Structures are given as structure tokens and as C-alpha cells.
């Protein structure tokens, strides 16, 4: 199956941004994203025990290093439930790795090393379990699954663009913030789904500060306290996303495709955050923005995303939801 088709099957919203990147960056980001989805599939699999997940995550690391064959993984996912798009990616891991070899060697190395580090981080947290004491623990987890992706993307941009390469040390810390911002929004979006599968990505100190337990967080009787915990999460996401906005504005305006590849996920995230604020529904189901909002963000950003003044105004506009 073509990598672009696999990308669209897995995430249409991420595909919107990745497909706006210049050709070589589009190919690299597509393959990196698919490799990371294999890691996600192994980490999030609800049919495996934690020990089984760790074994397969470490196997995946060895495959990426070249010390084991990809058949050792794909042979174990032949009969899995393909209603999960990530399962389809795992089944095609060999084809994705084969496509990776078509990229320049430096790009291959960047991608492989970051996917290895992310996968190792996932294995570490799978062993630890959903044991988040404070915000530093949450940030550590989110860095492994998202912050490292911010580093990878920035390195790819710097490889492609001399202008970005010259300021890479300046924007690399912002890349981490970008990843943490997107992942904090993902935590908010998936609060209920994660709870249903036994995970709660809410630090215990957030809960104790409000005087509520993790189980009470989803009990309608404690909805007002739960909303205060949600405030802590949404405020955290906003702090990270403000840095992400600075990151986007630091990219050269004339490299519009690269900017759009970052603007789309940023604006989708800030809009999702806006509809999640003080919204009790996030404790019952996944928070989403509408297809119409997605289309409008894509169109508006394509027309005006080269302008930093416009980005500031649009970010603020999307941050507000009329009651």
C-alpha cells in the first residue's frame, strides 16, 4: 500500500499538514509518522499485557536498529483487528521501512534515531504504568510520545532549509513545547477513552489540589470539581501552545508549505482546546471540532498563513467559543 494512502487511513487531519510540505519533507514526514504509529499501536494495544507490549516495543527498536527482521513483528499482527488503522500500519511495517531507504541517508538516520528513542520511552512508561504524580511526570511522558517528534520535525526542516538551520538552536526548545501542547490537547480529548481502558493522564497533584480522586473525576456528582481539574489541563495546554505559535512565527514566511505543515495542527489544537474549556462533555466523550471548522482553518491558513500578524489574530480568534 502507498505510504500516502496509509497516512490518510491513519489520520486525515495530520495528512492535511504533512501533504503541504515540500516533496522530500512530505515523504520524510509521512514515513516518520507511519513508523511512529507502529510504536503507538504496540503501546496502546488493549489486547496485550504490559509485559507483551514491552517485549514487542523492544523488538521494534531492534528492527529499526537492523538487528532483527521486520517479519518477526509483522508475523505477530497477521490476524489483528484491522478496524484499528494503526494495526494496518503495523502489518505494512516492512513496506514502510523499505520506502524509508529511498530517502537521503542523513534523513533516514534522523528518523530512525528519533523513532527508536520514542519507542524506548514508550516501553519505559508501559513498564511504569499510569503512574503520574505531578506535572513533571506528565511532561516526561508527553515528551517521549510527542516532544521528541517536535525535535525530529525541526531537524528535518533544518536539513532542508539553510534559514531554519541558522536558527535551529533558538527554535528547538519551542519544538518541545509544540509537542507538549499538541499532546496535552490529546490528553484532554481522550480523557474518557483513556479512563475506559484504565489510563488516567492527570497528575495526582492536580487531583489532590482540587480534592477529588481519579474515579470521582468521571462521576457526574463531582462535576464541578472535575471542571476545576479540567481548568488546570486547559491552562497547561494554552501555555505550551503559545510557545508553539512563536515556533511557527519563527519559520521563514516564504517557505509557506513548511509553515502550513505546522499551522494546521496548531490551529486545530487551539480550536479543540477552546471547545473543551469548561465543557463537562469531555468527561463523557471525545472533544472534537467540526469538519466545517477544519475546512475553514485550512482555507484561511492557506491564504494568510505567511503573515505573523494574521497568525496572532487568528490564534486569538480560534481561542474563543461563543456561548
Walk me through what this model shows.
This protein is mainly α. The protein folds into 2 domains: 1-128, Farnesyl Diphosphate Synthase (Orthogonal Bundle), CATH 1.10.600; 130-323, Farnesyl Diphosphate Synthase, CATH 1.10.600. Helix content is 73%, strand content 0%. It is built from 17 helices and no strands. The protein has helices at 3-10, 12-18, 23-44, 50-65, 71-74, 85-91, 93-100, 105-128, 135-160, 162-166, 168-189, 191-196, 204-210, 223-250, 256-276, 291-304, 308-318. α3 (23-44) crosses α6. The chain starts with a helix and ends in a 5-residue tail after the last helix.
How would the blueprint of this fold be written?
Elements: H1 3-10, H2 12-18, H3 23-44, H4 50-65, H5 71-74, H6 85-91, H7 93-100, H8 105-128, H9 135-160, H10 162-166, H11 168-189, H12 191-196, H13 204-210, H14 223-250, H15 256-276, H16 291-304, H17 308-318
Give structural attributes.
single chain; about 325 residues; Farnesyl Diphosphate Synthase; globular
Structural class designation: mainly alpha
Number of strands: 0
Q: Using the coordinates above, name the CATH class of the largest domain.
A: Mainly Alpha
From the 3D structure, determine the CATH topology of the largest domain.
Answer: Farnesyl Diphosphate Synthase
Contiguous runs where pLDDT drops below 50 for at least 5 residues: none
CATH architecture of the largest domain: Orthogonal Bundle
Give the N-terminus to C-terminus distance in angstroms: 45 Å
Helix content: over 70%
Spell out the helices and strands N to C.
Answer: HHHHHHHHHHHHHHHHH
Strand content is under 5%
| Rg over alpha carbons | 19 Å
Shape: globular
Q: Can you summarize the main beta sheet?
A: none
Query: What is the domain tally?
Result: 2
Overall pLDDT score: 94
CATH superfamily of the largest domain, called what?
Answer: Farnesyl Diphosphate Synthase
Amino acid at each position: 500500500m502507498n505510504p500516502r494512502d496509509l497516512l490518510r487511513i491513519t489520520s486525515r487531519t495530520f495528512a492535511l499538514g504533512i501533504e503541504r510540505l515540500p516533496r522530500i519533507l512530505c515523504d520524510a514526514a509521512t514515513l516518520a509518522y507511519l513508523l511512529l504509529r507502529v510504536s503507538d499501536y504496540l503501546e496502546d494495544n488493549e489486547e496485550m499485557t504490559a509485559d507483551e507490549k514491552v517485549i514487542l516495543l523492544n523488538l521494534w527498536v531492534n528492527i529499526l536498529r537492523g538487528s532483527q527482521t521486520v517479519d518477526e513483528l509483522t508475523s505477530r499482527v497477521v490476524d489483528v483487528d484491522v478496524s484499528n488503522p494503526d494495526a494496518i500500519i503495523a502489518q505494512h511495517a516492512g513496506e514502510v521501512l523499505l520506502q524509508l531507504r529511498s530517502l537521503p541517508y542523513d534523513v533516514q538516520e534522523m528518523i530512525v534515531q528519533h523513532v527508536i528513542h520514542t519507542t524506548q520511552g514508550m516501553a519505559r512508561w508501559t513498564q511504569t504504568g499510569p503512574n503520574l504524580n505531578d506535572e513533571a511526570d506528565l511532561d516526561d511522558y508527553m515528551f517521549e510520545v510527542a516532544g521528541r517528534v517536535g525535535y525530529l520535525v525541526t531537524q528535518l526542516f533544518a536539513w532542508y532549509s539553510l534559514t531554519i538551520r541558522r536558527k535551529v538552536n533558538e527554535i528547538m526548545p519551542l519544538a518541545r513545547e509544540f509537542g507538549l501542547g499538541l499532546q496535552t490537547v490529546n490528553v484532554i480529548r481522550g480523557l474518557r477513552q483513556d479512563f475506559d481502558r484504565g489510563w488516567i493522564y492527570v497528575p495526582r497533584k492536580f487531583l489532590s489540589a482540587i480534592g477529588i480522586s481519579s474515579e470521582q473525576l468521571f462521576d457526574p456528582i463531582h462535576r464541578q470539581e472535575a471542571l476545576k481539574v479540567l481548568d488546570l489541563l486547559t491552562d497547561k495546554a494554552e501555555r505550551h501552545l503559545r510557545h508553539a505559535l512563536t515556533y511557527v512565527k519563527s519559520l521563514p514566511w516564504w517557505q509557506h508549505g513548511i509553515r502550513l505543515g505546522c499551522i494546521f495542527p496548531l490551529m486545530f489544537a487551539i480550536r479543540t482546546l477552546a471547545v473543551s474549556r469548561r465543557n463537562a462533555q469531555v468527561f463523557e466523550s471525545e472533544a472534537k471540532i467540526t469538519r466545517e471548522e477544519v475546512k475553514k482553518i485550512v482555507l484561511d491558513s492557506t491564504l494568510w498563513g505567511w503573515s505573523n500578524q494574521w497568525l496572532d489574530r487568528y490564534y486569538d480568534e480560534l481561542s474563543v467559543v461563543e456561548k
